[in-house]
Amino acid sequence: MASVNEPTTKVWIQSLLEPGQLLLWAMSYYVRVNLEAVFKRGQILAPLLQSARLRDEAFGRFWVAVTTTNDENTAQSQSPVAIQAGLQNSSDLIPPVLAHASGLVLDVGPGTGTQMPLLRSPAIKTIYGAEPCHGLHEELRSRADAEGLGEKYHILPCSVVASELVPMLQEQGLLPAGTTALDQTTGVFDTILCVRVLCSVPDLDQTARELYSLLRPGGKILVTEHVVNPWRTAKGSVVARAMQTFYELLGWSWYLGDCRLNRNTERALRRAADVDGGWESVELERWFGRTCLPYIAGVFVKKA
Ligand SMILES: C[S@@+](CC[C@H](N)C(=O)[O-])C[C@H]1O[C@@H](n2cnc3c(N)ncnc32)[C@H](O)[C@@H]1O
């Protein structure tokens, strides 16, 4: 387990305000996209009648901007609380986790493909990226090509919700025709990547169970996810938990692509393996426990 340095009070307060900055940034894209629809494209009723489409477009443009800033490793992309823990930002948790990827891989919600440079291992045969936000596909494809993964990386334009994923996997020849539910499979993938995405799926417990079913025996789920603040434990913070609720009330989920700050992702993933009497092994680290964006990072291995 990592030893996490306690943040100073100043850094801790900064960390509590960090999601607020992200939220304002996301809101500005939402406002801009709505104004453009009305005044540039003349779609006067679009904010009322096509709010889902505009929200999707705004989140896509926002996420491209966030990932570009992170790529440039500017001061804006660095997190003081991460720096005190010996990292630049939470993205530094991802490489050691993704180093475990191999075989046939499902990349859940790859966004713009910022993880692409970490997926060049020859141990990885083929990758399917299930990304429902169409505004991110162009960037995702160009990153795959730029990293030499053009042939290996296949974009599935869908959510991991079974009603969308099952037909896509059937189209790719990965699930037999006639399959209607993901828990009817005996396993498809060797590795499933979940990086900052389980916060956004509609039903966490169900998705966790379905992803578990999609794993072959001995397969791995690799996670780097922000989670609910563990405020009931000594490592958590009541104030940070209250701030999470505050940001949710301000519309965090609406402006940030259905992201939720209150997910107990570790519990959902652990329970997903109950049908088989648990996982073969779980290696998980917990980070930034006193902040509004605490993380879990690690590897869940299915029994062989
Ligand atoms: C916060 S972004 C993270 C992107 C990428 N994994 C990363 O870490 O840079 C969340 C991503 O999950 C995608 N997403 C949201 N709901 C999803 C779902 N139900 N199934 C698959 N992806 C989803 C979003 O479109 C978005 O690209």
From TrEMBL:
<keyword id="KW-0489">Methyltransferase</keyword>
<dbReference type="GO" id="GO:0008168">
    <property type="term" value="F:methyltransferase activity"/>
</dbReference>
<keyword id="KW-0808">Transferase</keyword>
<protein>
    <submittedName>
        <fullName>S-adenosyl-L-methionine-dependent methyltransferase</fullName>
    </submittedName>
</protein>
<dbReference type="InterPro" id="IPR052356">
    <property type="entry name" value="Thiol_S-MT"/>
</dbReference>
<dbReference type="GO" id="GO:0032259">
    <property type="term" value="P:methylation"/>
</dbReference>
<dbReference type="InterPro" id="IPR029063">
    <property type="entry name" value="SAM-dependent_MTases_sf"/>
</dbReference>
<dbReference type="Pfam" id="PF13489">
    <property type="entry name" value="Methyltransf_23"/>
</dbReference>
